[in-house]
């Protein structure tokens, strides 16, 4: 399903609404104003995904580009290796999720990075020992080359059976 | 050449004189006298029906125009722009994992779980339940007000002419008319309440009449067309009336049909003068800024008022702030702790004629009133719900939620648990902890059930 001009207008309305200072750019504080996001355990991480490294603001094209990752996948796309990977393909969605884990962008999810995510998702509900054993087990299951970190390929392999196209997609109402 | 000008001058003066006289006579006969007597000619309802016909025509023309040019018509979405599945954390993560099975004694985390939180997070960035309650509701059809239209490109010449005519009528005729009425109404209120204040204490009949007359004039000043339902449930003395809050005009809408004691902070300026005048003839409850913080003091004053059965019911808006009339937010429990009968009232505005919601972060009060007076009309329905009392074993919060649910159901509004104070405040960490708790409960259940 394509994004129509009407949808872009709607997104721009939302962008303007979030842009409290009217500067044409969104800052961290603007995202933090979204109430439902503030109660999401990995809310800060998701906000971070909108900002390129070193950037402190997000303009509208970048805003839409990130959201485009969540467009439903076009199942009928012919696999053409000469074309660049569309931003809403399964691989791109996986990359987006991978970067939520891999904050230092070194291409691997280290044990420390995994622990960090677990801490955010579980908070005070589990002990530190439980967190470590969960992290250990997750790495054990996915880490195939035994380097104590999860690379993108290992990440992709461990999620082979997951219906990412459906779960990482946001459908616009007509 | 001087003698040339005089007859012309005289003519202009005469014309002006006549038109002003005619103007005021019409005003008196059609608006002020009926307001005093409490009758209605039905002019406003006829006006409303005519407007509806015109709006439908305008919308059809726009849609036709868009089709001809083969464009997409921008349709405002009142229910949000993205499809949100109302499934729970448990359902979604279960689906995410598919049929993975393993025997573990510890909570079982999977890398895929992050997708659930990630998608929910991005969904809320695009469209969230709470923030959209604090901005004006969007309309499906166009009501000839520029403020509510995004499809400018599709407007034909005829439509533009109609819109231009609309602007002329609204700003050139309706606005001055309404301003005159508003000034008359407020002026009369000040004068008459002060006069009644000189009469012996306990003179309620005249003071009620005076209040009603002035509010009726104010209602006509806004061209408010109000339909009252279930008037047998009207609030009685010794009780508290609670209603959902959309705009300061709510007060005028309700006071048009009955006498209430208002509760509020003491203001300065014109508002303060009005408050002092009103208090002279009937017992309103105005608090100084400093007294507001002292909850016991507030509760005591309210309690004393309701205990006195000769005093009118108190009017309170428990949400504490203006919401955009698509939902009802958390009711503050203060008024429900007093222990008297609560009379719930639901107010629903029809957004087709003018948006009544006061977005206090966008418009100041004067700007807002001018917008109101230059809209077509304010059409609303008021439902008086049967009185409710606190039941055995029910605490104030539960009682408040019960009343809120009744109001939301009657008015066709969404019943939200969120606090209206979130308009200005930060979300508490407790909410985040709740989400974390949901997740860990889910993980625990998965591991123990296998």
From TrEMBL, chain A:
The record, for InterPro entries, names:
Calcineurin_B_homologous, EF-hand-dom_pair, EF_Hand_1_Ca_BS, EF_hand_dom
Q: Sorted alphabetically, which SMART domains does this protein's record hold?
A: EFh
| Any one cellular-component term (Gene Ontology) | cytoplasm
Keywords, A to Z? Calcium, Cell membrane, Cytoplasm, Lipoprotein, Membrane, Metal-binding, Myristate, Nucleus, Phosphoprotein, Protein transport, Repeat, Transport
What would you give as a GO molecular function for this chain, any one?
Answer: calcium ion binding
Family (UniProt)? Belongs to the calcineurin regulatory subunit family. CHP subfamily.
Q: Where is the EF-hand domain?
A: 89-124, 130-165
What's the chief localization of this chain? membrane
> What gene codes for this chain?
chp2
Record organism = Myripristis murdjan
Family annotation (Pfam families): EF-hand_7 (PF13499)
The uppermost taxa in this organism's lineage are: Eukaryota, Metazoa, Chordata, Craniata, Vertebrata
- State the name under which the record lists this protein: Calcineurin-like EF-hand protein 2
Q: Where in the cell is it found?
A: Cell membrane; Cytoplasm; Nucleus
- GO-annotated biological processes: protein transport
From TrEMBL, chain B:
Recorded metabolic or biological pathway in which this protein acts: Phospholipid metabolism; Lipid metabolism
Q: Which domain of life is it from?
A: Eukaryota
Q: Where in the cell is it found?
A: Membrane
Gene Ontology MF terms: glycerol-3-phosphate O-acyltransferase activity
Per its UniProt record, what InterPro entries does this chain match?
A: LPCAT1-like, Plipid/glycerol_acylTrfase
Q: Which ranges does the record mark as transmembrane?
A: 20-43, 155-173, 179-199
| Domain (Phospholipid/glycerol acyltransferase) ranges | 239-350
Indicate yes or no for the key word Membrane.
yes
UniProt key word Transferase: yes
The Gene Ontology CC terms held by the record are: endoplasmic reticulum; membrane
What GO terms describe the biological role, i.e. biological process, of this protein? phospholipid biosynthetic process; triglyceride biosynthetic process
Spell out the SMART domains in the cross-references.
PlsC
Q: Which UniProt keywords apply?
A: Acyltransferase, Lipid biosynthesis, Lipid metabolism, Membrane, Phospholipid biosynthesis, Phospholipid metabolism, Transferase, Transmembrane, Transmembrane helix
**CDD domains attached here?**
LPLAT_LPCAT1-like (cd07991)
Q: Which Pfam families match?
A: Acyltransferase (PF01553)
UniProt record similarity statement:
Belongs to the 1-acyl-sn-glycerol-3-phosphate acyltransferase family.
* PANTHER family (UniProt xref): GLYCEROL-3-PHOSPHATE ACYLTRANSFERASE 4 (PTHR23063:SF37), PHOSPHOLIPID ACYLTRANSFERASE (PTHR23063)
What is the official name of this protein in its record? Glycerol-3-phosphate acyltransferase 4
Q: Which organism is it from?
A: Myripristis murdjan (pinecone soldierfish)
Q: Gene name?
A: GPAT4
């Amino acid at each position: 399903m394509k994004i129509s001009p009407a949808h872009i207008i709607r997104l721009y309305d939302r962008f303007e609404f979030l842009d409290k200072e009217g500067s044409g750019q969104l800052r961290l504080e603007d995202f933090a104003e979204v109430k439902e996001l503030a109660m999401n355990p990995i809310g800060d991480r998701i906000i971070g995904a909108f900002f390129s490294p070193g950037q402190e603001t997000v303009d509208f094209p970048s805003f839409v580009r990130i959201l485009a990752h969540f467009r439903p996948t076009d199942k009928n796309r012919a696999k053409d290796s000469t074309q660049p990977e569309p931003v809403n393909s399964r691989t791109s969605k996986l990359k987006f999720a991978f970067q939520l884990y891999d904050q230092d962008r070194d291409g691997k999810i280290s044990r420390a990075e995994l622990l960090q995510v677990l801490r955010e998702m579980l908070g005070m509900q589990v002990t530190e020992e439980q967190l470590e054993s969960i992290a250990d087990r997750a790495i054990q299951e996915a880490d195939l080359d035994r380097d104590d970190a999860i690379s993108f390929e290992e990440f992709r392999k461990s999620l082979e059976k997951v219906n990412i196209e459906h779960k990482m997609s946001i459908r616009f109402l007509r | 050449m001087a003698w040339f000008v005089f007859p012309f001058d005289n003519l202009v003066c005469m014309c002006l004189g006549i038109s002003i006289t005619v103007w005021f006579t019409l005003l008196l006969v059609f608006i002020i006298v009926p307001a005093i007597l409490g009758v209605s000619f039905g002019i406003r309802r006829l006006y409303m029906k005519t407007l509806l016909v015109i709006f439908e025509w305008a919308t059809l023309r726009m849609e036709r125009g868009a089709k001809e040019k083969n464009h997409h018509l921008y349709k405002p979405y009142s229910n949000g722009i993205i499809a949100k599945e109302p499934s729970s954390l448990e359902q979604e993560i279960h689906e995410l994992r598919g049929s993975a099975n393993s025997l573990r004694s510890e909570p079982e985390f999977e890398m895929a779980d992050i997708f659930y939180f990630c998608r929910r997070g991005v969904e809320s960035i695009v469209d969230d339940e709470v923030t959209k309650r604090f901005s004006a509701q969007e309309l499906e059809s166009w009501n000839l007000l520029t403020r509510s239209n995004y499809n400018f490109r599709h407007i034909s010449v005829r439509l533009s002419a109609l819109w231009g005519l609309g602007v002329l009528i609204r700003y050139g005729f309706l606005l001055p008319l309404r301003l005159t009425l508003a000034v008359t109404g407020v002026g009369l209120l000040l004068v008459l309440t002060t006069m009644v204040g000189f009469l012996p204490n306990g003179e309620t009949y005249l003071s009620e009449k005076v209040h009603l007359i002035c509010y009726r004039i104010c209602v006509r000043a806004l061209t408010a067309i109000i339909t009252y339902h279930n008037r047998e449930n009207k609030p009685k003395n010794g009780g508290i009336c609670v209603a959902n809050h959309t705009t300061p005009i709510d007060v005028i809408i309700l006071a048009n049909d009955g006498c209430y004691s208002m509760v509020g902070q003491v203001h300065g300026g014109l508002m303060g003068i009005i408050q002092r005048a009103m208090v002279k003839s009937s017992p309103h409850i105005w608090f100084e800024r400093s007294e507001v913080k002292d909850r016991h003091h507030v509760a005591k004053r309210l309690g004393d008022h309701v205990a006195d059965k000769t005093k009118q019911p108190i009017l309170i808006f428990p949400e504490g702030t203006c919401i955009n009339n698509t939902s009802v937010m958390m009711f503050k429990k203060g008024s429900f702790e007093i222990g008297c009968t609560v009379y719930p009232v639901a107010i629903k505005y029809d957004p087709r004629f003018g948006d009544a919601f006061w977005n206090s972060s966008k418009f100041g009060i004067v700007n807002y009133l001018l917008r109101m007076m230059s809209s077509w009309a304010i059409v609303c329905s008021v439902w008086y719900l049967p009185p409710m009392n606190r039941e055995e074993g029910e605490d104030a919060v539960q009682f408040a939620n019960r009343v809120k649910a009744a109001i939301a159901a009657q008015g066709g509004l969404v019943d939200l648990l969120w606090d209206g104070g979130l308009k200005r405040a930060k979300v508490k960490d407790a909410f985040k902890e709740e989400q974390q708790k949901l997740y860990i409960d889910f993980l625990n259940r998965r591991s123990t059930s296998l």
